Amino acid sequence: MRSVNLLPRDEKRQRRQPGAVLLTGVLGSVLVTAVLAGLFMMTSSAASGRQSELDGLRAELAAIPPAPEAPADSSGLETEKSARVVLLGKALGARVPWDRILREISLVLPEDIWLESLAANAPDPNFTPTPGKTEAPAGQFTITGYSYSHDGVARLLARLSVLPQLDRPALGSSVVDTSKARDVVKFTITSALKQSQVAAT
After folding, report:
1. 160-183, pLDDT tens digit by residue?
2. Strand partners, 142
3. Which residue in 16, 53, 63, 159 could disulfide with 108, CB within 3.0 to 4.6 Å?
4. Buried residues in 131-144 as b, exposed as e (16+ CB within 10 A)
5. Which CATH number fits domain 95-200: 3.30.70.360, 3.90.1150.10, 3.40.630.40, 3.30.70.2830?
6. Does residue 166 contact residue 140 with C-beta atoms inside 8 Å?
7. Containing H/E element for 62?
């Protein structure tokens, strides 16, 4: 016997539509699941990378040796520091600017004067005040040289007396030396250093 479809055509179309909707829903859910799985994998990979970096930093931190403990008694260090500061101030206070003094002497030296020797000594930095002496003896120097006349020696003495570092230059001796090919005057001049000039440096 031959089958005959008695249903109207519209109803037939309505029956086919639910299958297509179901297929679309399944494909959509599979696609959403795949996207979520991919995002999960990426997030998991980034988190594991950060965790390994954190573990490495923790290992480096654990490898750093602990800081040494501060000494319990720091008063000894403070005392030693104060003593060193006092000694340094004492040494700088007794410093003599020999380079400046010698340069100024060379600038005022007359042309008819030549020096044979120059001896200098600085104040004693370890001087201890006593009831009779409260200040250390000033440094001093002595120069020995020659000139063609006593006038040249007097001219040198007058020029040395205007130097600010020297305190009352004095003539030690001035005698005519006849042992040379030409008569010359041999002289000795001594001078002390001014205390204020020594302390200022």
Report:
1. 988 888 888 889 989 988 887 888
2. 119, 190
3. 159
4. eeeeebebbbbebb
5. 3.30.70.2830
6. no
7. helix 9-63
The predicted structure's pLDDT at residue 145:
92
Domain residues of the chain, as ranges?
A: 95-200
Q: Identify whether the C-beta of residue 144 lies closer than 8 Å to the C-beta of residue 187.
A: yes
Residue type at 188? T
Kind of pairing, strands 184-193 and 166-177? antiparallel
Across the strands, what pairs with 118? 143
Distance in angstroms (rounded) separating the CA atoms of residues 108 and 163: 9
Summarised one tens digit per residue, pLDDT across range 62-88 is 878 777 765 555 677 888 888 888 877
